[in-house]
Design brief:
Distance between the termini: 47 Å
Strand content: 15-25%
Organism: Actinomadura monticuli
Keywords: Cell membrane, Membrane, Transmembrane, Transmembrane helix
Radius of gyration: 31 Å
Subcellular location: Cell membrane
Number of domains: 5
Protein name: ComEC/Rec2 family competence protein
Main location: membrane
Shape: globular
Strand order of the largest sheet: 17-16-14-12-11-10-25-26
Number of strands: 26
C-alpha cells in the first residue's frame, strides 16, 4: 500500500519549529519567522520555466486559453502554484514543497513568538520575577489534580489569570494549592485567590506559577456546558457505586477519563502491563463510541450524508463530557481520523489526515509540540495507519482473520510508541502486546455499556446500574489481565532512558529488521541468542540470588521516601515506613518473600513515608501498627482494621530475636495539625534502634538538627545508620558521629526536587569514615551479617 506523504513534511516542520522555538527569546523567534516567510514567498512566487527543466512548453487547448483569458488576471499565479503542487515533479515541485514547508515553519514560529511575548510581559510576570504575594482572579481551565507530597497533598490546577491588582489580564498560570477544597472546582469556574507568584521552571507558555494560600473564593458557577458535563460524570460515578472498588475506579476512566477513584497501585499495574491508554480518553475509546453511533445511524436508515453530522454531534458531546482539555481534543481529532479512514474504506488517506491534524493542533496550541502525550497519540495513530495494514496481511496467511487483526494493531501501536515510552520510563514493556491482545475483547463492551449507563443515569439511576453491571464484568477481566501481566517476571526490561535510550532502541529495531530479512543472519542471531541464554542460565545458577542469604535489613528503593525491612524470621519482617507509592514497596517485599508483617512502623505522617501502605498490606497479614504520639490522623485511612499503638521512649518491642528500642519522640509531644510545617512533623519522627545478635541499626526517621542535638547523648553505638531526612543538609555532626556506624544508608529518589542527599552531608559522612550506600544509585540495599561484622549487598 502506498501512502500520500505530501503533508508529512509541513506537519513535521510545524511540530519541530514549535518545539524548538519555545526555548528561544521571542525577538529571535520573530526573526526566524520573518526569514522563513520571506524565503517561502520567494520560492512560491518564483516563475516556473518548464523548458529549463527539459519538459518544453505544454500545448494549450483553445478552451483552456479562453478560460485563462476569461479569468481574473490575479488568479493565474495561484492556479500555477496549485498545478505545481499537484504535479510535484522536477525542480519546480521541490521548490514548492520547500516553500510550503517554510511557510508552515514561519506560521508556527510566529504563533510561538506571539504567545511568548504575551506571557513574558505584563503585571503577572512582573509579580513572578519579584516573587511577590498578591490577590488575583482566575478562571479554572482544567480539572484539579491531587499529587501526594511529603507532609501534604499538592493540588495542581491549570487556570487563566483574569485580574491581578485590579488590572485586567488574560494569561495562563499554574496554581499549586494544598487545601482539599480546591479539588471541588470545575473547569470554567471563576475564583479569587491569594498566593505567591514565582517564575515557571523551564520554557513554556505559562506567565507564572502561583503558590496558593488557603481555600478558593468561588465567584461564580461553572458554565452551562461544564455543569452539564459534571452532571453526566457524577451520574456515571453514581451508577458504578455498587461495583467492586477497583471496577468503579477503572470504568469512569475508560468512558470519560475520570480517574478520581482509581487506586494508585492498580494504576501502576496498568502502566507495567502497557494498558495505561485504557485509563485516559484516547482515540480508540472515542472511535468505539462514535462507531456505535454510526452503527445506530445505519440501522435507522440514515445515509452517508446524514450520518456524519450525527457523528460530529457525538464527538462534540464526548469532548464536553470528558473536558475540552488539550489531551481530550487531541484524542478527538485522532479518533475522528481513524473512524473516517475506516468508514470510507480509504486507509491510504489516513496519513495525510493525521499530518493535517498535527499541523492544525500545533498551530492552535504550540505547547503540544513538547507534550509526550501528544507524541504518543500521533505515533500510535501513525503505527495503526502505516504498520498495521501490511502486518495484518502477512499475519492472515498463518492466523485467523480476527486474531491477525488484533495482533497487528497491538504490535503496530506498541512498536510505534516504544521510543517515547523508553525516553519517559527507561523500560521496555515485554508483555504489553500480549496484555493488549487479552484485554481487547473487553474494551468495547466496557466502553459502550459504560457510556450507555452514563446517559441512562440522567434519567433512571436503577436502570443505569443494571446496564453497568455487565460493563463491570468486562472491566474486571481487564483488571485481571493488568494485574497478572504486571506480576509476571520481567514484565518490563530496564533500558537506558532519555534520547540515548530511544536512539539505542531504534538502532536495535533496525538490526532486528535486517536479521528478519536474511536467512543467514537469522541463523547467526539464533546461535548467538542460544549462547547468551546458556551463559545467563549458567551465571544465574552459580551466582547468589536476591535476597542474599542471611539478610538482616533491606532499604527498599521506593523513590523519594523511606521503606525499611527488618528480618524477623522466615517469611516475616518488621516494616518501617512504606514509601510514597504502593507498587515499589510491594515489589520489594515480594522479592524478599515477606508474607507476614508482625509490626508496621510509621515514623511520621508524611506522604513519602505512609502512602505506600496498601502495597505492604497487599496479600500480606499485618498484625499491628506503631505510630508517633504526635500523629495527625493522616495515617488513619491506611490502618483501617489494624490495631494501632503510639510509640513511647524506652519502650521495647520483641519479634523473635529482633529487639526494637524506642528513643524518640517524647510521649508528651503534642498532636500535629495540618498547619504544622514540615520541620515540626519531621522532628516528631519515631527514632528506634534495631538489634539482634551480630546486627544493630539506628533508624532515625526524618529528625532534623534540633532533635538530633537532644538525642546526641542517648545514641548507642550501632553498625548501620539510616541517615535522617534522606541525607538533607539539616544534620548535626555530633549526632552522626555518636552512632559510630560503619555503614550509612540513604533512602532517596533519583533526580529529586529537594537536592537530597546534600553534598555537605555526604562530605560529613566521608570524614567520619562511614561507607555510604544510596538507593537512588544502587536500588534495594541489603545488610548481611558476616564473620567480620556486617556488609552491604545491592540488588543491582
Amino acid at each position: 500500500m502506498t501512502h500520500d506523504i505530501r503533508l508529512l513534511a509541513p506537519a513535521l516542520a510545524t511540530w519541530l519549529t514549535a518545539a524548538t522555538t519555545l526555548s528561544l527569546p521571542s525577538a529571535l523567534t520573530y526573526g526566524l519567522a520573518a526569514a522563513a516567510a520571506l524565503t517561502s514567498l520567494y520560492l512560491l512566487t518564483r516563475p516556473n520555466h518548464p523548458a529549463a527543466a527539459g519538459g518544453g512548453t505544454p500545448p494549450r487547448s483553445p478552451s483552456s486559453s479562453r478560460q485563462r483569458s476569461a479569468g481574473a488576471a490575479g488568479s493565474a499565479p495561484m492556479r500555477d502554484l496549485l498545478n505545481r503542487v499537484r504535479d510535484g515533479g522536477g525542480g519546480s515541485g521541490r521548490r514548492v514543497v520547500a516553500g510550503v514547508v517554510l511557510a508552515c515553519a514561519a506560521a508556527s514560529a510566529c504563533g510561538v513568538a506571539l504567545r511568548v511575548t504575551a506571557v513574558a510581559g505584563g503585571p503577572v510576570r512582573e509579580l513572578a520575577r519579584a516573587e511577590r504575594t498578591a490577590t488575583a482572579e482566575a478562571v479554572v481551565t482544567g480539572d484539579p489534580r491531587g499529587k501526594p507530597r511529603p507532609g501534604r497533598q499538592m493540588i495542581i490546577i491549570r487556570a487563566r489569570a483574569e485580574a491581578v491588582r485590579r488590572m485586567k489580564v488574560r494569561v495562563p498560570v499554574l496554581l499549586i494549592a494544598s487545601d482539599p477544597r480546591w479539588l471541588r472546582l470545575v473547569p470554567s469556574q471563576r475564583v479569587r485567590l491569594r498566593g505567591r507568584f514565582v517564575p515557571p521552571k523551564g520554557h513554556g507558555l505559562l506567565a507564572a506559577v502561583v503558590i496558593v494560600r488557603g481555600p478558593p473564593t468561588v465567584l461564580g458557577p461553572p458554565s452551562t456546558l461544564q455543569r452539564a458535563a459534571e452532571h453526566v460524570r457524577a451520574s456515571l460515578r453514581a451508577a458504578v457505586d455498587r461495583l467492586p472498588p477497583d471496577r468503579r475506579g477503572v470504568l469512569p476512566g475508560m468512558v470519560v477519563g475520570d480517574t478520581s477513584r482509581l487506586d494508585p497501585e492498580l494504576a501502576e499495574d496498568f502502566r507495567t502491563a502497557g494498558l495505561t491508554h485504557l485509563l485516559v480518553v484516547s482515540g480508540a475509546n472515542l472511535a468505539i463510541v462514535v462507531g456505535a453511533v454510526l452503527g445506530l445511524c445505519r440501522l435507522a436508515g440514515l445515509g452517508r450524508r446524514r450520518a456524519p453530522p450525527v457523528a460530529v454531534l457525538a464527538v462534540l458531546a464526548f469532548v464536553i463530557v470528558a473536558r475540552p482539555e488539550p489531551s481530550v481534543l487531541r484524542a478527538a481529532v485522532m479518533g475522528v481520523i481513524g473512524i473516517l479512514a475506516l468508514f470510507t474504506g480509504r486507509e491510504r488517506q489516513g496519513l495525510p489526515a493525521l499530518a493535517a491534524a498535527v499541523l492544525i493542533l500545533v498551530l492552535i496550541d504550540p505547547e503540544l509540540a513538547r507534550s509526550y502525550g501528544f507524541a504518543l497519540s500521533v505515533l500510535a495513530t501513525a503505527g495503526l495507519l502505516v504498520l498495521a495494514p501490511p502486518w495484518r496481511e502477512r499475519l492472515r496467511r498463518r492466523l485467523p482473520g480476527p486474531l491477525a487483526d488484533a495482533l497487528a494493531v497491538a504490535a503496530a501501536a506498541e512498536v510505534a510508541v516504544a521510543p517515547v515510552l523508553v525516553m519517559l520510563s527507561g523500560e521496555v514493556g515485554v508483555v504489553s502486546v500480549l496484555a493488549n491482545l487479552l484485554a481487547a475483547p473487553a474494551v468495547a463492551p466496557a466502553t459502550l455499556l459504560g457510556a450507555l449507563g452514563a446517559a441512562t443515569a440522567l434519567v433512571s439511576l436503577p436502570v443505569a446500574r443494571l446496564i453497568v453491571w455487565p460493563a463491570g464484568l468486562a472491566v474486571g477481566w481487564i483488571i485481571r489481565v493488568a494485574r497478572t501481566a504486571a506480576a509476571l517476571p520481567y514484565a518490563t526490561v530496564p533500558w537506558t532512558g532519555g534520547a540515548l535510550g530511544a536512539t539505542a532502541l531504534l538502532a536495535a529495531g533496525a538490526v532486528a529488521v535486517l536479521i528478519l530479512r536474511s536467512r543467514r543472519l537469522r541463523l547467526v542471531a539464533a546461535a548467538a541468542m542460544a549462547g547468551v541464554l546458556t551463559a545467563v542460565v549458567a551465571m544465574r545458577a552459580m551466582a547468589p540470588g536476591w535476597p542474599p542469604p542471611g539478610w538482616q535489613m533491606v532499604a527498599c528503593d521506593v523513590g523519594q521516601g523511606d521503606a525499611l525491612v527488618l528480618s524477623a524470621g522466615p517469611g516475616q519482617a518488621v516494616v518501617v515506613d512504606t514509601g510514597p507509592d504502593p507498587a515499589p514497596v510491594d515489589g520489594c517485599l515480594r522479592r524478599l518473600g515477606v508474607k507476614d508483617v508482625p509490626l508496621l512502623v510509621f515514623t511520621h505522617p508524611h506522604a513519602d513515608h505512609i502512602n505506600g501502605t496498601s502495597g505492604v498490606r497487599r496479600h500480606r497479614t499485618v498484625h499491628g501498627v506503631l505510630t508517633t504520639p504526635a500523629a495527625s490522623g493522616r495515617e488513619a485511612r491506611y490502618t483501617t482494621g489494624l490495631r494501632t499503638r503510639h510509640a513511647e521512649p524506652g519502650q521495647e518491642w520483641r519479634v523473635g530475636d529482633l529487639t526494637l528500642s524506642i528513643l524518640a519522640p517524647p510521649t508528651a509531644t503534642r498532636a500535629l495539625t495540618p498547619k504544622d510545617d514540615g520541620t515540626t512533623i519531621n522532628n516528631a519522627s519515631i527514632v528506634l534502634v534495631a538489634r539482634r545478635p551480630g546486627f544493630s541499626a539506628l533508624l532515625a526517621g526524618d529528625i532534623e538538627t534540633e532533635v538530633q542535638r537532644a538525642l546526641e547523648a542517648a545514641v548507642p553505638r550501632v553498625q548501620v545508620l539510616k541517615v535522617p531526612h534522606h541525607g538533607s543538609h539539616t544534620q548535626e555532626p555530633r549526632f552522626l558521629a555518636a552512632a559510630r556506624a560503619s555503614i550509612a544508608l540513604i533512602s532517596v529518589g533519583e533526580h529529586n526536587d529537594y537536592g537530597h542527599p546534600s553534598s555537605s552531608t555526604l562530605a560529613l559522612l566521608r570524614n567520619l569514615h562511614v561507607q555510604v550506600h544510596r538507593t537512588d544509585q544502587e536500588g534495594d540495599i541489603a545488610i548481611v551479617r558476616t564473620n567480620a561484622g556486617v556488609t552491604a549487598i545491592t540488588r543491582h
